[in-house]
Amino acid sequence: SRASSAVLARDNYPLYIRSSPTENELKFHYMVHTSLDVVDEKISAMGKALVDQRELYLGLLYPTEDHKIKYGYVTNSKVKFVMVVDSSNTALRDNEIRSMFRKLHSSYTDVMCNPFYNPGDRIQSRRAFDSMVTSMMVQVC
């Protein structure tokens, strides 16, 4: 099974990308960037509801032949999380994915709180963040 996760800055450049297996990384970069228009459309469509309900989970973005760019999430500061999984994995439920995104958001917040991290810089291999993303991808696969 294949899974990938990305954290994208407010201006849509990658802060963190993790792909398993790693040979899919370039293809995953492409899929993430093609999904950004859908993410922006969903954010615009939700508009005030997004702020009022603090609903950060965007749900299904769009499917492709061999993957589902099924999952999107946006923080209050407009940082975006995208998860791509194998289309063969249909056992995942929305509440499980929401929970994974909340954990990812929490780990991202921990990175942001590090006094040595400059906001907007690429998230280098931070042990806690990497291990959380890896365990999340194992759950998805």
TrEMBL record:
UniProt keywords, alphabetically: Cytoplasm, Endoplasmic reticulum, ER-Golgi transport, Golgi apparatus, Transport
A GO CC term attached to the entry: Golgi apparatus
A Pfam family reported for this protein in Swiss-Prot or TrEMBL: Sedlin_N
Name the UniProt record assigns to this protein: Trafficking protein particle complex subunit 2-like protein
Keyword Transport assigned: yes
Signal peptide: none
Primary location recorded for the protein, binned into one broad class: cytoplasm
The keyword Metal-binding is assigned to this record: no
Biological process (GO), any one: endoplasmic reticulum to Golgi vesicle-mediated transport
Compartment(s): Cytoplasm, Perinuclear region; Endoplasmic reticulum; Golgi apparatus
Protein family (similarity comment): Belongs to the TRAPP small subunits family. Sedlin subfamily.
